[in-house]
From TrEMBL:
Listed Low complexity bias regions: 32-44
Region Disordered: start-end pairs: 32-80
Residue ranges constituting the F-box domain according to the UniProt record: 136-174
Keyword entries, A-Z: Kelch repeat
Alphabetized Gene3D superfamilies for the sequence: 1.20.1280.50, Kelch-type beta propeller
Name used for this protein in its record: F-box domain-containing protein
Keyword Cytoplasm attributed: no
Amino acid sequence: MTDDHHHKHKPATLSPSTPPLVCLLACWSPQSQQSASPPLAKASDPLLGSHRIQAVKHKRSRQPWRPRGVKPISQESWRRKRARAKKWREPWPAMGCSGGIEAACGGADRMEEEEAGAPSSSSSPPPIAQLGYDQLLSVLRLLPPEAVLSFAATCRAFRAWASSDALWEALCRRDWGARTAAALAERRRERERGGGAVPAPWRRVYAEVARLGALSARRVPVRGASPRPRASHSLNLVAGWLVLFGGGCEGGHHLDDTWVAYAGTGAGNRLPTVLSWQQLASGIPSGRFSHSCTLVGDTLVLFGGITDRGQRLNDTWIGQVISEEPRRMRISWRLLEVGPLAPPPRGAHAACCVNDKFIVIHGGIGLYGSRLGDTWLLDLSNGLRSGSWHQIRYTWPLPPPRSGHSLTWIGGTRMVLFGGRGSEFEVLNDVWLFDISDHSPKWKELKYDLSSALGEMPFPRVGHSAVLALGGKVLVYGGEDSQRRRKDDFWILDTPALLQYESGSKKMSKRMWKKLRIDGQCPNYRSFHGACVDTSGCCVYIFGGMVDGLVHPAEALGLRFDGQLYQVELVLHL
């Protein structure tokens, strides 16, 4: 017998201080488990050390094997012990009960104390054990999802409570907004009534949105007359109606027409199979392109733009939607009284609405073609009867002057600026965060390591669209580069992760940007199109734009404009 063979069969030696449970695990093997009679252990066996365990050979006895010195447990004791363990493992019986989590976190300890006859220590439970379920639910609603999941990993009862559908619905409502959560809930009910399938739990919905990776797209067919192909127009979804205004068309002419189409309320209604456009009165507001049109509730606020003669505008219009019939509507436009102060005339600027109280505009093309870098705020806190413009003064650093960029509100008092064309006609892909919460609004550039983010960030672009989709994600589509090559890719900017980076709790991750897969009829390459999102944040509508692959800047007559409407939907299993 070789030395290797001797060591192969030599058992490992455990120290005398090895706990008995470890000794038992060391002696166990699958072969011994399959044996009808467990092997007898010798008292001098080095595996047992000072813990000498006499294995009992049992043939027909139903009593379980136990070490020497342990008293047998009666059947009645076993039944009581199993009943208490089963009661402790059950989740909370009802949402409204207030017995506290002490029954779960202290149940095992009390069970052992009762079995041993020791006095209970429930007279001074830990602070968390004194909370009722309703109180615990209120605390969990204040935590970030990561903390809730960590709490759920503590024990079975905590996992059951942290998986409550009411809790995750509240988290969705908190993180996505009440209006979005209500629309999403109605969407789930519509699918349940239509297909009879039980909707997924809210926890799964939250996870689906967090790992969003695909979109489905289709071209919407149109019945009857349709808007003229155009670019640099505005597209909004107001009270279930798609509203299209202005833009530029072939020959470099501006348009002053307004078109509407009923698309549903966005609260579970599907877009009609065939869409019908209706043309409203033209001439008010005056024709223009490269203007901004934002929503304040269900009211349109239009500012600025450029005419076909090159004139820059700085007028502010209010568009009130008036429903006349279930499928008929009109828009009442009027000039907004803003006082003597107003932003300089401009076009191709970026704008967004903050909390239905303020309109923020930034940059654009001013007089003589200069790029602007100023920021203005329209205060509408007194209602839509009048407003007041004032320029936002801030300190360094500032975004470079640009045009054709996007400014997207992401909740609270924050907004994200992305891309555009700079003063030297360079195309940008930088990301800036703007916060107007305090008396000194601040810009902050969100820089990331290009070496680690290669392939996980969009290329520089101008004339793209950016909307706030479900889950607080900014969905960026299309645009063109410095060579006028149009793009057809979709990207999402993870704003929750962005805000964690901005607060200093995390470093900028290469997964801040994520490219999405497109299924179905993907919109082709385009720039300077119009895009808007429904109230649920699940559906994005895209219309028009310039669709040529490569156009020389001097070949204005070579531009081709698109007049198709696309619906792009987040792929979610609700």
